[in-house]
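ESCALATION

Customer reports they have been waiting on this structure for their group meeting. Please prioritize. Original submission:
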Amino acid sequence: MVINSWTRLTVSLFYILLIANTPVYAQVKKDDPKTEVPEVGQEVFRSIMQFYEYDRSIPLDSRIVSDETYQGASKQKIVFRGVYNSHVPSLLIVPKDSLVAHSVVLIVDGYGGSKDGWVDDESFSLGGLVTKALLKSGFAVMICDAVYHGERNFENEFSGPPHPFDYPNTGRQMIIQTAVEYRRAMDYLGTRRDIDTTRIGMMGISMGGFITFALSSIDPRIKSSIAGLTPILKEFKYQPIASSTFASRIQTNSFLMFVGSTDPYYTVREAHQLFDRIPAKVKDFVEYNSGHHVTKEYVEMVANWFSRNLKR
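Update from on-call: job pushed to the front of the queue and completed.
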């Protein structure tokens, strides 16, 4: 297993939490019927936020590797510098139409996925169908390969990404670093004339849901979000990435959660409890009769959600 400099950050967080001298999770009344999903106090949250910060003076060193046509749109493969000297392969797909600058949706895939799954109609995420629907609605789409995923599997000795449940420390670091690199992706979008950075949306599936919850509460550039099939993690070791850490601090104007009724990674009751904490002005909760996988119905839902809430 590759051990990188994020290990030092994990140790630092441990001591920060000790020094904070605040309860790790907010206390709940014993007679409260909804005590399953934990919360963090404000001091702990401020400590966790530091792990999602980065040095903005680091050059992006971005370059367009290729430019092809996809569904009548421009599909560019772009590489930019992430953090800790990483290089992030990504796809930016922009409609070819009369608009000068397009609203954009950042997409974060689940564990084991990659940017290429979002131009594949039969991937786990049905990503090609979602991308086509967003392009048809006039949105640009950007997807990055997560740490250890896709073209970045060499970062873990070509053995595939570590599963957060099997390797919680490395998995946690993988998710945090990927989140920071999506912040760098937004920096890159700010250099493009064909992107309207006042209208940035984000959607994450499964592991990508962790990142969507985190960045929707930390980065004010995101205006509307969708988090789907996001596992609800309760153990202390997952606190820096858990959706419950961020739900009550969401800053986006609109937020949609969708879940599977038989998903083994949470109960519908837990998901509702999490959803109730989200303070977004516009929010919605959608339940599908499914497990930990998407259904074709969600494709139209995604396009409609961003059409209503991101083009304003």
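Sent to customer with the following note: The chain has a mean pLDDT of 90.
Escalation resolved.
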